[in-house]
Every structure is written in C-alpha cells, then in structure tokens.
Amino acid sequence: MVLLWLRVAAILYAGASIAIFPAVLHNRERWKSVAVHLGGLAFFFHFVSVVEMLALAHRWVPAGVRETESLLGLVVAGLFFLMWWLYKAMSLGIFALPVTFFIVFVPALGVEKYVFPSYGVRMSWLVAHVVALMAAYAALGFSIVASGMYLLQERRIKSKVKPGSTNGQTSVEWLPPLDTLERIAHATLLFGFPCMTVGLVIGSVLVQETDLGAAYFRDPKILASFIMWASYVLLLFWRSRAGLRGRKAAYLSGAVFLVMLAVWAANQFSQVHRFGAP
Amino acid sequence: MSYTVLGVNHKTAPIELRERIAISRDELPEVTRALAATPGVSECMIVSTCNRVELITATDSSEVDLSAFLCNQFGLDPALLSGHIYQHRDQQAVRHLFRVASSLDSMVVGESQILGQVKEAFATARAAGTVGSELDHLLQSAFSAAKKVRSETEIGSNSVSIASVAVELARKIFGSLQGRTVFLVGAGKMSELAARHLVQQGAGTILVTNRTMERAQRMAEPFNGQVIPFEKLYDYAAEADIIITSTGAPHHIFRREHGQAFLHKRRNRPMFFIDIAVPRDVDPAMNKVEGLFVYDIDDLQQVAAAHIAERKSIAAGAEVLVEGEVERFHQRRRTVNVAPVIVALQRQAEELRQAEIRRIQSRLGSLTAEQAAAVEALTRGLMNKFLHPPMQALKQAARENDAVRLDALCETYSLPNSQAGPEAVAAPAEQSNRTSPDAPAPERQTSVAGRR
Q1: Residues that bind NADP(+), according to the entry (chain B) (predicted)?
Q2: How much is the pLDDT for B2?
Q3: What's the rounded mean pLDDT across residues B130-148?
C-alpha cells in the first residue's frame, strides 16, 4: 500500500506541476485552484505513504535512498504549502511542485529499481528522452536568435536609421517588428520548457535502472541539465510575472543559452553521460 | 478611333489655376456627360484630383477641341490656359495614362492614392454612361500596368508622408496595430492625420486630451474617441501604446521619469511617442529608456525625405515596365482591330462552302444523316485549313502595323479595306463577334488573337 499511495501522490504531483505554470505565469484563477487541490491531495497521499512506510518499519528514520527521497519530497511539498498558507506565495509552486515530483518519481517506481521489460522498450524511452531534449534545445536556440534580432531591431529604431543611409544598418531592414520578435522568443521558450521537463523525467527513469543510482545526479552533465531547467523556469517566471521583456529578457535568454552550451560541453567531462554511451 | 488626353497638373499649372478647374465629386458625372456631348467625342472620363484635372477621351476625329470645352465649362480665358495645358494623342496618351495610374507622374512618386482616384473616375464615367469598349480596354490595361509596377518594383513599399512614416514606425514596433490604443495630446492637423492613418491600420481606442475641452471633443468625434481632461493626462498616458503629442507648451510635458513610470504601470510593454510639437513636448532623453521610442518632427521628415530619394531611383525601372505595357497594349489593339477583316474572310469562305454544298446536293442524292455530317465535317475542315495561313498573315501584319501588306491581303481575298492601323476605328467587340450560326467560331479565334 505504501507504494500505491506514493504512486497516486506522484501522479497528482505531476498534475499539480502542470497546472501551476498557467496559474503563476498567466495568473489564471482556475488553474490556481486546480494546482492547489491536486497538490493538496498529492501531499495527503504522500503523507499517508510516508507514515505507513515508517510505521510498518517501526522506526522514525528512513532507510535507503528511496525512502529518503520520498521523505525529502514530503518536506519540500510541506514547506511550499506552509509558505502558500502564510504568505499566499503561490509563485514558489513553479519550483516546489515540479521538484517534489522529480524527487518522488523514482521511489514511486518501486522499492527495487525499475527494470525495462525489454531492450526495445528501453530504446524507445531513450529515443523519447533524446528527442524531447533536442526539441528543447532547438526551441531555446530559436528564442536566442529572436532575442538577438530584437536587440538589432530595437537599436535600429532607437538610432533612427534613415532608409538608404550607408551606415551598414540598412541591410537588416527585413527584420520583423519588435512585438513579433518578442512573441517568438517567448513562445519558443514556452514550447521548449515542457520538452525539457519531459526529457529530464525520462532521463531519470533511464538512470535509475543503472548501477549508479543516485550517484548519477552528482555528475557535472546531469547537474548542469538541472541547473538549465531551473534557469528556464526562472526565465519564464521573470518574463511572465515581472514583465521582463525586450533587452533584459534577451540578455537573460543569452545567459540560459550559455548554460545550455555548458550542458553540451559537460558531456566532455561526464563519466556517466556521453553521446553514444547513455 | 484615337485616344486623347488633355489636362493640367501640379507640374504645369499653379494651384490657383488648378483649383479653378477642379471638379467636385458631385459635379463630376454631369461634367463628364457634358464632355461626352462634345462633337467628335465617342467616349470620355475625367480625372480630377488636387494635383491634376485630365480629360481622357476616345474620339473619332482629330479635330476635337478639348481645351475649348474646358474654357467653356469653367468660363476661362483661353489665354489663361495656354502654357499650362498639355495634350497627348494615341500612343503618347496611352503612355501618359499608364504613367499616371502607376503613380510615376505624381508629386510623390509611388503614392498609392492616384490609382484609386483613377478607378473612381472611371467608375463615375461608367455610371454616367460615357464609357464604351475603347476606354474600357484602355483603362483595364492601365490598371493592370499599375498593378504590375506596384508588384514588380518597390515603388510603393516606402511611405513618404509624415503620417504614413509614423504608421510605418509604429508597425516596426508593434507589428499589427490592431487594437492598439492611441493618445492624441493637443490638437493639430498633422496629429489628427497621423491618428487617422493609425485608425485605418486597425488602431482600436483613441484617447484625446487638450487644454480646451471643446477642441478635444471636436477632435475625438470623427474617431469615436474618448475625451480625457488635460489634468488627467499622466493617469491615462500609460494606457496608450502610441502617443501623438502636439501641444503649444513651452517646455517638455513628457520627461524621463514620466516615461519610466508609464513603463512600470504597463509592465514594460513598449510605448511610441510621436512628437509633432515645436518646441518639443517629449524630452529626447526618453528615447534612451528601454521600451520607449521617441520620434520628433525632424526625425519623421528625414525618414520621409529618404524614402522620396529612394523612390526616384526605383521609378527608372518602373518607367521601363510602363513602356513595355504601352507597347503590349498597342500590339493587342492592332490585333483586335483586324478582327472585322478576319470575320469577313470567314463569312466569305462559309458562304462559298454553303453554295458549293447546295450545288453538289443533286449529284449526291439522298444522304443518310451520318453521310451528311461527314460531308459537312470534310468541307468545314478543308475550309479552316485553307483559311489558317491568310488569317495568321492578317494578324501578323496588324501586329507589325504593316498597312501595305494588310491592303495586299485584303485585295487578294476581295475583303473590305481594313484600315487596321493604330488610328483605325476598332470594330466593337459585339459587332466583330457577330457571325452566322453556321460560321466556324470566329469568336474564339479573334479572342485568341486579342489575347496575344
């Protein structure tokens, strides 16, 4: 039953993690309600699971990595709900709920590590992992290109370049309007974020099957990937909540892009994640 | 039938003369009908804009005095018109009309209004019943030439008026202007014009403020705008995407700190300030703030001037295009003019065929329906094959304006003299296409010729 309640909690955390983004980024009341209710239910089942787990074992300390992960997830979710209750800080949810889901996800797979039924199934998961992350990288690439074009166009308009003038800036008269570039940069980020999240979740499923287990997450490549995911969330959060746009948003996108390059570069130093040797 | 264009324009006549002969929209149908009643004028239309008044006619004699009509109509002394008037005939007239429609003869080369004005004049003349196939053919060709010039050159791609430059810049910032809010601060002709341009491009809400409430209300009326008390200017400014300001204030009414406060309220959504006032209403330092774009009257004028210079170089390419279209028009016209001759040739051959069938009927005896159809098909086929070379020769001679060859062909086949040169009277389409029901589809053949 411990595992059953934990799995129910994991599913509910996943739903709450999805709902929290429109709730926070677009200030949608209905989504806020969905996120809180799903998250609350998830926390309840998670709490039941943890209590049952510890009561069954007749001890008050978790044993093993999976139990520890489950307990850590419960603490993170509990803290978030406490903040929300005290300060109405719903925006923290875009970090807390997905992180809780990530932490709970692997223990919810089973007491023992999950083993794929066949090589074909494992390869399918691997392909999905690669495709999702490539889509996220491509979207981020488009976002940075649109941001760069935004900076160029903004400079042109502000410097009041005359048509036909020979200062080299006339060659970029084809640039789209600022508003269009801003929307492209934002839309590509919105598209890339779920791709990256899904890619990382699938990666977590793949890695728990290896002998490395939790040690895998200490690898520079894997750490950099999660840092990139967090940067992505920050970027989306600032864009939507703080009205960050234009030049500052372009620079921030550039920073996230640099993190992405670092993730790629980390493949050279990674002991556990290499292209062709997942 | 020949074309004649007579008129005055911004290059040949001063404004004082142009406004004396300008024809209002309400008077235009009546004046057009009066022109059509002039002896020798078969078809006509009049283009009357602030920059030109032109009488465009199809006449059946070269003796028509259009300047006399102009003098009589407006009670002008002919001496007053001399030196200011121009008259073009035939190919020159066609070229002139094509250039006018393509906006190559406009004060601002490439402006798009003239094509609409010519179309409107044509529609008025059509409604007045003064347009027939000749002018219809000419004007349709002029419209397609203008369309070609606009689509194949960049002559119309750059706006030139201050108002349209403002719209163009707003588009560079906001993309679509659909639903954008425009705030008019102070009342001025130019800011009103800019606002009108923005509304035409889809701008949604118009806010108007002025120190004088009455003036603000007057200005807001045509846009269904909302009047804002002047003391609430800063409260509402943040709602506007575009602010057009033209007050008589001796100092800046929008300063950097205002701009930053607006941006904060708008969560950094950009704002565009169009400052038409002299002295300026907007502190130029505001342009340094990210998200604020400030253009004053000098900036707008410089962009407009640069566009005009660009257009002059593009116009050279457009002139070549128009020349090609004029030539094509004349070629088509000459080909169409030979249509009556071709119809006569076909009719003559058909009569011969029918006569021969009647003559041989007694020797053939009674034929079954299939046999009669076979004889019919055989004779018709032979006739068409024999007619093909002379018909091609006639069309070729017409295209090359070779009157000698045309006459020789007409003489060879005992046809009426075609006079199919450019000065020839073209047979109306409906007449040229009228043939006996038994004739071998001359309509199809002439229309093919006409399309070449």
Answers
A1: 186-191
A2: 87
A3: 92
Q: Is B186 annotated as a binding residue?
A: yes
Q: Can you tell me the distance from the alpha carbon of B1 to that of B335, in angstroms, rounded to the nearest whole number?
A: 15
Active site residues of B: 50
What is the predicted pLDDT for the residue at B443? 33
What single-letter amino acid sits at B157? Answer: S
* Structure tokens, B149: 């010039």
Q: How far is CA A245 from CA A151, B179, B229, in A?
A: 11, 20, 32
State the CB neighbour count (10 A cutoff) for residue A242: 12
Task: Write the DSSP symbol of residue B156.
Answer: T
Task: Classify the phi-psi angles of A176: left when phi > 0, otherwise alpha if psi is within -120 to 50, otherwise beta.
Answer: beta
Q: What is the pTM of this model?
A: 0.57
Alpha carbon A2 to its chain's center: 27
DSSP letters, B56-99, are EEEES-TT--HHHHHHHHHT--HHHHTTT-EEEEHHHHHHHHHH
Please list every residue in chain B whose beta carbon sits closer than 8 Å to the beta carbon of residue A154. Answer: 290
Question: Could you read off the pLDDT of B231-240 as tens digits, one per residue?
Answer: 999 999 999 9
Distance to chain B for A187, nearest Cα, Å: 16
| CB contact (8 A) between residue B174 and residue A179 | yes
What average pLDDT score do residues B382-386 get? Answer: 92
Alpha helices in A59-177 (DSSP H): 64-87, 93-109, 119-158
Partner-chain contact B267 A180, CB within 8 Å: no
Most confident of A236-250, B81-95, B193-207: B81-95
Q: Which of B270, B307, B309 is closest, CB to CB, to A178?
A: B270
B207 strand-pairing partners: B183, B226
Tokens representing B451? 């399309």
B371 is in an annotated binding site: no
User: What domains does chain B contain, in order, with CATH numbers?
Assistant: 2-155+312-329+438-447 (3.30.460.30), 162-304 (3.40.50.720)
Residue B5: DSSP 8-state:
E
Distance from CA of A153 to the nearest CA of B (A): 8
- Measure the CA–CA gap between B429 and B343, rounded to whole angstroms: 12
Task: Return mean pLDDT, chain A.
Answer: 82
Mean pLDDT of chain B: 83
- Name residue B311's amino acid: R
Q: Kind and range of the H or E element at B88?
A: strand B86-89
User: Is B310 in Cβ contact with A163 (below 8 Å)?
Assistant: yes
DSSP strands (E only) in B201-297: 206-210, 226-229, 242-245, 271-275, 292-296
Q: Examine the pLDDT at B411 and tell me if it is beyond 90.
A: no
Is the CB of A179 less than 8 angstroms away from the CB of B309?
no
The residue that leads in pLDDT, A209 or A178, is: A178
Confidence of residue B430 (pLDDT cuts 50, 70, 90): very low
